């Protein structure tokens, strides 16, 4: 359904004739533009406030621009009454006073910091020196706290558990480091459980040797007795004097050992030095070694038989 207001507006602005008259008669308008009623100027209230209509600002724009140099008029609200008044009573006349500009701060000593107009060199120098003196004597503002981006100290994060109690993160880190060190010590100790006395002694000797080498220098000299003794104790198979030279014994007490052949066993353990050469076992070690050698010989023969035609 067409809008009646729109039809009446179109008929009054753009149509003519009986059709336009019928549309205007149906909508109740006569088609003539109505003149806007001029609102009366509101009077000043008893409290000193003046209400000004926004529509009056346009025609008075020229007049306001011409009177910029005039003093501003302000209503004195001290004489007004703050209580309620009956309707129809005469309001108290408002006292108008001219606004006085507050004195501007011209710096220390009442001197004007910037002066307009032409000035001589001496005046400009004196003004510059006065400004520098005021900057030096003026109290400096307190420094603002530096943020994290500017290099300030970051606030410490507070950690809490499920019950809300505060957790000391540094103590927790120290406890975790101690627990980790204890775990590493136990793991290193478990590795030595499967070692015998010989392996432990060899590890201790290697550690002591490394400790002694750590304090030595890289250079070796002729006067190094330990270095010379190490190479003198070495036995070489191609040495022609090895047949008639007595074997050098290790320094210190030596454990006595059996001298002579003994029947082999799976662990290659030699008999005691007091053994008389009589095998008093049940023969299991002998049978085990014979069976092992027989299987090795059979495998070697089978491999040789398979490669004979190549």
From TrEMBL:
One of its GO terms (cellular component) is U2-type spliceosomal complex. Residues 89-98 have a biased composition (Polar residues). InterPro entries: Bud13, CWC26_splicing_factor. Residues 20-216 are annotated as: Disordered. Residues 112-136, 157-192 have a biased composition (Basic and acidic residues). One of its GO terms (molecular function) is RNA binding. One of its GO terms (biological process) is mRNA splicing, via spliceosome. Residues 197-212 have a biased composition (Low complexity). It comes from the Eukaryota. Belongs to the CWC26 family. This is Related to BUD13 - subunit of the RES complex, required for pre-mRNA retention and splicing.
């Amino acid at each position: 359904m067409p809008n009646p207001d729109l039809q009446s507006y179109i008929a009054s602005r753009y149509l003519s004739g009986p059709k336009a008259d019928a549309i205007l008669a149906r909508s109740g308008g006569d088609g003539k533009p109505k003149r806007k009623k001029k609102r009366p100027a509101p009077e000043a209230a008893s409290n000193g406030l003046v209400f000004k209509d926004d529509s009056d600002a346009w025609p008075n724009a020229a007049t306001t621009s011409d009177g910029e140099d005039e003093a501003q008029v302000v209503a004195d609200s001290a004489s007004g009454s703050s209580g309620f008044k009956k309707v129809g009573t005469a309001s108290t006349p408002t006292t108008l006073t001219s606004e006085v500009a507050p004195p501007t701060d011209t710096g220390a000593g009442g001197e004007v910091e910037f002066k307009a107009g032409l000035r001589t060199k001496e005046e400009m120098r004196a003004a510059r020196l006065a400004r520098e003196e005021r900057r030096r004597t003026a109290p400096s503002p307190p420094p603002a706290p530096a943020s994290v981006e500017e290099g300030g100290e970051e606030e410490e994060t507070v950690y809490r558990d499920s019950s809300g109690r505060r957790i000391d993160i540094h103590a927790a880190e120290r406890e975790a480091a101690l627990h980790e060190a204890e775990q590493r010590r136990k793991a290193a100790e478990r590795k030595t459980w499967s070692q015998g006395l010989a392996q432990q002694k060899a590890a201790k000797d290697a550690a002591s040797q490394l400790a002694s080498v750590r304090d030595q220098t890289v250079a070796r000299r002729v006067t190094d007795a330990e270095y010379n003794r190490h190479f003198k104790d070495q036995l070489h198979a191609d040495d022609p004097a090895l047949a008639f030279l007595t074997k050098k014994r290790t320094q210190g007490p030596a454990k006595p050992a059996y001298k002579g052949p003994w029947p082999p066993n799976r662990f290659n353990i030699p008999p005691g030095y007091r053994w008389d050469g009589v095998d008093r076992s049940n023969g299991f070690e002998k049978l085990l070694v014979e069976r092992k050698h027989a299987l090795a010989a059979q495998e070697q023969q089978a491999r040789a038989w398979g490669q004979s035609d190549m």
